[in-house]
Structure formats: C-alpha cells, structure tokens
C-alpha cells in the first residue's frame, strides 16, 4: 500500500460512534459523547480532553450498572475530578435491579472539583446552561442513554445564548 493511499484513508476515517464523538459545537461550546463506563475509560477520555484542548472541561456522567457503581464509586469520583466541572446523574437501569442505597450521588458526594448531583437526566441541559461558558468542552460519559441529553443540550444552545 502506498503512502498516499494510507493518507487518504486516514483523512476519510470518521472515528467510532460514541467514542469521543463530537456531536456539534454551538456558541463556542463543543459537545462530545463518549461511551466510557469504567473508571479507566473515563480517565482516558478526560485526560485526552484536558491535554488535547486548551479549554475548560465539563463532564456529565451517567453511571452504568448498580453493581459497577457500588464497586467503583470512589474511583469514578477520583477520575471525574480531572474535569473542571462534573455533573453526575442517576444510574442507568440496564440488566440489573437497583441496589438499595446505590445512586450516582455516591459519586457526586466524593468529587474533588466543582460537582453537582442532578438525579433526573432530563433536567441536565437546562441545569448546564447556567454553568457553561463559551469555549467549554462538554463531555457526556456513559454506556446508557445519556447521549440523548447531549443532543438536547446542542438544540438548547441553538435556541438560547449562554450568559457567560
């Protein structure tokens, strides 16, 4: 294979869906979706954002599985604290039944950065608009349906300007 063929293929490569997928940019705010749902994946994604962009990073995290949340909530809080601002929502109901006392708030309570617990994920776009600044990178993290809120935020930013 010739170098030019390789170069052309790389230029055309669009990446993998839900892996640091740029959903859009509006008002100078970039919105990214990533399937990261384990502490090592979350850490890799946030480090990439912090090192790759000279911008404030806002992470929105939806834990996936009650058992994983119970096992790794401390690690999630540690790696999410790499972001400048963190919003944690409740655990995505996947293949497990809820475990008593296991919620996303367990993670939010241990954050070492500006962090918020927003139980209802549908409230996240409105909540975020009051926190966002032009130039931010907002990364939606999780294997559940949190990416729906990324699209909702993008639409909200198209309709109404941010205050900061």
From TrEMBL:
SUPFAM superfamilies: MurD-like peptide ligases, peptide-binding domain. GO terms for molecular function: acid-amino acid ligase activity. InterPro entries: Mur_ligase_C, Mur_ligase_C_dom_sf, MurCDEF_pg_biosynth. It holds the Pfam family Mur_ligase_C. Residues 18-144 form the Mur ligase C-terminal domain. PANTHER family: UDP-N-ACETYLMURAMATE--L-ALANINE LIGASE, UDP-N-ACETYLMURAMATE--L-ALANINE LIGASE-RELATED. This is Mur ligase C-terminal domain-containing protein.
């Amino acid at each position: 294979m010739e170098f030019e063929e390789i170069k052309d293929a790389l230029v055309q490569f669009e990446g993998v869906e839900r892996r640091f997928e740029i959903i859009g940019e509006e008002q100078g705010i970039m919105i990214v979706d990533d399937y990261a749902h384990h502490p090592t994946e979350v850490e890799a994604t946030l480090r990439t954002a912090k090192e790759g962009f000279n911008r404030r990073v806002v992470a929105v995290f939806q834990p996936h599985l009650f058992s994983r949340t119970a096992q790794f909530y401390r690690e999630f809080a540690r790696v999410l604290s790499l972001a400048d601002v963190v919003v944690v929502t409740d655990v995505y109901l996947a293949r497990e039944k809820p475990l008593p006392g296991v919620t996303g708030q367990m993670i939010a309570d241990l954050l070492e950065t500006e962090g918020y617990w927003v139980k209802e994920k549908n409230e996240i776009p409105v909540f975020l608009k009051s926190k966002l600044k032009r130039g931010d990178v907002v990364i939606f993290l999780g294997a559940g349906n949190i990416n729906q809120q990324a699209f909702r935020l993008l639409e909200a930013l198209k309709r109404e300007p941010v205050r900061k």
